[in-house]
Design goal:
The protein is of the alpha/beta class. Helix content is 37%, strand content 13%. The protein has an eight-stranded mixed beta sheet with strand order 7-8-12-11-10-9-13-14.
């Protein structure tokens, strides 16, 4: 498709130039490493006979013939997050056999290189296992590296959807950056009850106005079949960004599982990865796809759609794996010029199926390219222009074809940049004497963008829940929930707090949350300053707050401060015991000890950079 060639917004260009300059040494070192790896080539012909025999011992005879030849026949490694407990990953069960048959028909082969763990934050919310969630990302990266370490593959297909799975897969894929890599999504489940109806039942249950059975029935009608959850949380934000950064096939993120179009996407992904290996004239390693411009495109799309706050952490870590260094300042500058052009629950009433029907990722890309907020001149898995992604896919006589974007008739879901829902992005940076934090403002009414109130200090969300049920949370206050950072306990999401804070806000109290923990894309109507850095475990100022201190959170000014006291004379609170044993948490002590700050991606695995 012909490039749209709009002039890039000056601020977007300035941020990109700053990132390129900041990353010059590390990026050059990374690309040099990847070029060296590409020269080694993972062709089977370089293996000893014993090595080679081991690599295809379980293959059928037709596959063995191809693998023995080695020359000009691609062998694609499949890394899958399939399991049949998690709805988002259950559809992957039969993907490998379809990929294999498609490639075999083209004279190539594919092998399942390995599986990676896939945990669901929806299952572990409020449970001890949630403290392993963030670290599962780096575990997935390590697992992917092991899968690809056999060095017998010419390309990779990554099958993953959810919160930490896609970032972990991508981090490892970038360390095998000489391999062409395509991410293959599974799509969302059909719409059940509305997300707003589900939220109302949760609040009623928290107030004792709905029974356990009523709540379970509501949740079961919301999460009811195979596919991704239908709200715009971390999983669906992942899918948005994989497309915007050129790692999906165009328009494939939100097509439903088990549809004819989804089947066509899987076949085309298999075919396409075989067309861009080092054996062809269209060699497209993932190291060339994930460039500084691609990372900025992901950041812009995150802001424009009010996506998950988790992606602030993950994009930073992903960029680091490609030798690119981004900062909270970069996000903040982009947020000042990138308008909010999509409303998808929790920052609107539409779910992702309705969003997709309204044009979805393709329309978002089209609108952002039109206004010069995205870089069009980027390498993707399908070509050399992001304009290839500003179009819709459909099946015509069982063939995948692309058509131009149609006029937008659903401006309650996606709008042009000249008619945005808000003039600034959905996520903002907060900075002050309490450190750095981020806040998702897209779902927070403007009347709650500023709050100054006394602190109520908690070291565990269970303590907050008890205080709520004991009716101790009266008047205006800012809940400070600390020792929830990665070094303290793995940085769990604190969603058990949100229905309760929502109830208090609905009663007329002015409330907010300040924490060194996470909330993710489900952050809702209550202002929540997240990822406070330095965290309490690292002697951050959040560990010096006392009960009753005045704290001010101002989304307009982007500030987060404690007022009326001298922090230089304050002692630091100590972490309570009992956060690191049980449900396997003791096995992850090495991650807690080595993890870096959230502002640098909360990475717990290390490698040498230039």
């Amino acid at each position: 498709m012909e490039s749209m060639m709009h002039t890039v917004n000056p601020t977007v260009q300035d941020v990109t130039d700053t990132i390129i300059e900041r990353s010059n040494t590390s990026r050059s070192h990374y690309l040099s490493q990847m070029r060296e790896q590409a020269q080694l080539k993972p062709h089977r012909s370089q293996l000893s006979c014993t090595n080679l025999a081991h690599s295809f011992a379980a293959s059928d005879e037709e596959e063995k013939i191809i693998l023995k030849q080695g020359h000009n026949k691609a062998n694609i490694g499949i890394v899958t997050a399939y399991n049949d407990m998690l709805s988002a990953h259950q559809p992957f069960q039969h993907y490998p056999e379809l990929i294999k048959s498609t490639l075999l028909g083209l004279g190539h082969t594919a092998q399942v290189a390995g599986g990676v763990p896939a945990m669901c934050d929806g299952i572990t919310q409020g449970q001890p296992g949630m403290e392993l969630s963030l670290f599962s990302r780096d575990t997935i990266a390590l697992s992917t590296a092991i899968a690809l370490s056999h060095n017998v593959f010419d390309g990779t297909l990554c099958l993953g959807v959810c919160d930490k799975i896609v970032p972990g897969l991508l981090m490892a894929a970038l360390r095998f950056g000489h391999l062409p890599t395509i991410f293959v999504p599974a799509g969302p489940m059909p719409s059940g009850i509305s997300n707003s109806e589900k939220a109302i039942t949760r609040q009623k249950f928290a107030e004792g106005k709905a029974s356990h059975d009523e709540l379970l029935e509501s949740e079961s009608k919301s999460y009811h079949s195979a596919g991704t959850c239908t709200f715009y949380g971390t999983a669906n934000t992942n899918q948005m960004l994989m497309e915007v950064m050129g790692l999906h096939l165009p328009d494939s993120a939100f097509t439903p599982p088990d549809s004819g179009l989804r089947h066509a996407f899987i076949e085309q992904a298999a075919k396409r990865v075989s067309e861009i290996t080092g054996m062809t004239n269209h060699y497209t390693p993932i190291a060339d796809v994930i460039s500084e411009k691609a990372i900025v495109n992901g950041m812009v799309a995150l802001m424009a759609t009010g996506g998950s706050t988790n992606l602030i952490i993950h994009l930073t870590a992903i960029a680091r794996c490609a030798g690119i260094h981004i900062t909270l300042d970069d996000f903040d500058q982009l947020s000042s010029v990138v308008p909010l052009i999509a409303r998808v629950y929790p920052n609107g009433q539409a779910d992702v199926n309705q969003f997709h029907h309204a044009g979805g990722t393709s329309r978002v890309i089209f609108e952002l390219l039109e206004s010069g907020l995205l870089h069009d001149d980027v390498t993707t898995v399908v070509g050399d222009s992001l304009s290839d992604y500003a179009r819709r896919a459909k099946l015509v006589k069982q063939t995948l074809v692309y058509q131009p974007i149609e006029p937008n008739e659903q401006k309650d879901i996606i709008r042009p940049t000249k008619e945005p829902f808000d003039s600034v992005g959905g996520i903002k940076r907060l900075k002050g004497n309490l450190g750095d934090a981020i806040i998702k403002v897209s779902a927070v009414p403007k009347e709650h963008w500023v709050i100054k109130a006394p602190a109520r200090v908690f070291h565990d969300q269970a303590d907050f829940i008890k205080a709520f049920h004991d009716e101790q949370l009266t008047g205006d206050f800012i809940a400070v929930v600390r020792f929830q950072g990665p070094k303290a306990n793995g940085m769990p999401e604190l969603h058990k707090l949100m229905p309760l804070l929502g109830i208090l806000q609905d009663r007329g109290q002015h409330v907010a949350l300040v924490t060194d923990g996470r909330l993710s894309g489900a952050s809702g109507k209550v202002p929540a300053a997240l990822h406070v850095c330095p965290e309490a475990m690292q002697l951050g100022a959040i560990s010096q707050i006392k009960e009753g201190d005045m704290v001010e959170l101002n989304c307009h000014e982007g500030s987060l401060n404690i007022t009326g006291c001298d922090l230089s004379t304050r002692p630091f609170a100590q972490q309570p015991s009992g956060h690191v044993q049980g449900i396997g948490r003791e096995l992850f002590s090495v991650f807690r000890h080595s993890v870096g700050p959230t502002s640098q991606g909360a990475i717990s695995i290390q490698w040498e950079e230039a």
